[in-house]
Model the fold of this input.
Amino acid sequence: MNELLEIRGLTVELPTAQGWVRPVNAVSLRIGAGECLGLVGESGSGKTMLSLALMGLLPTGARTSGEAWLQGVPPALWNESAATRETVEKNGRKNLATLSDQEFRTVRGREAAMIFQEPMTSLNPVMRVGRQIEEVIQAHYPKMPAKQVESSAMEAMRLAALPEAKLRAHQYPHQLSGGLRQRVMIAMAIAAGLADPGLEMSTLEKRQSGEVLNGPRLLIADEPTTALDVTVQKEILQLLQKLRRDLGLGLLFITHDLGVVAQVADRVAVMYAGRIVEQGPARDVLGAPKHPYTQGLLAASPRLERGKLTPIPGTVPQLTALPPGCAFEPRCALRRSDCSVAVPELRKSSAEHMARCVLV
Done:
């Protein structure tokens, strides 16, 4: 597989009054170009912190270790003066775990973009949405003519399925519904990748399916459908699937809804207390889960068939008071004495299906 993103042992540490904690602990994942990886887990499991680390948006004082290699745009398009031997390989790969703030500005928005959970708090309330999309393009192509910037922004809005794009471009965020605001966020995420200084206007019809003008790109969607009703949720999911297919985007889809994951994800990774506890093809993880935590999530998820939901007892442990062994051991009905001795390694149940459990 052509790996767009390869994470190896990525760890994020945050300072607290009780010492350093690890909301992301030795995480290893991969996402191929055009592939969707669903990242699931309860609130507080570290999903959002992982995405913020990949975007260089961690809180002040945080420190990272490990590797997160992103296959960047072709070498002719990236700024060699900002590249260092420690952060960029000759083939254009960038280690997101070691990029400086300045280097992240060249990556963020063009090679990696993020759709946040609540667009109303992410958009500028006193700026028209069309202008906000144009700002993303101008940040990467400051010398692009204004007319071309405007046409590229309109193209992004069209691909994000915004109805009456010219009218919406002159509106403010509060004048749009939740679904339209989320489409504006999607347009902002893809705008810089669509713009090309060498063309007067970039349109979807000019590229082959799966081809992106400025190279492969990573799109992170952090629970983009949580605040939307079911009908709009389905439309947003279909839109993301279409963009992934047409533009060749690698999609990291973060959610706690296993039903949504089953619809959009090619592979699934389950996160708990900062660690990946199970990962593999979606059909294997959701159809035959191996880790007791994944089994608990599925048992607690609503189904079409009427039946009793079985909640997982207890809550996600505080990062300052993790048990010495498996973090899920205090809540696990299948725990054994060796579960509390040491953190289990990821064990293979098949070629691509792994779980962090002594029972595997």
About this structure: Residues 230-247 form the longest helix (18 residues). DSSP finds eleven helices and twelve strands in the chain. Residues 168 and 176 are 8 Å apart (CA to CA).
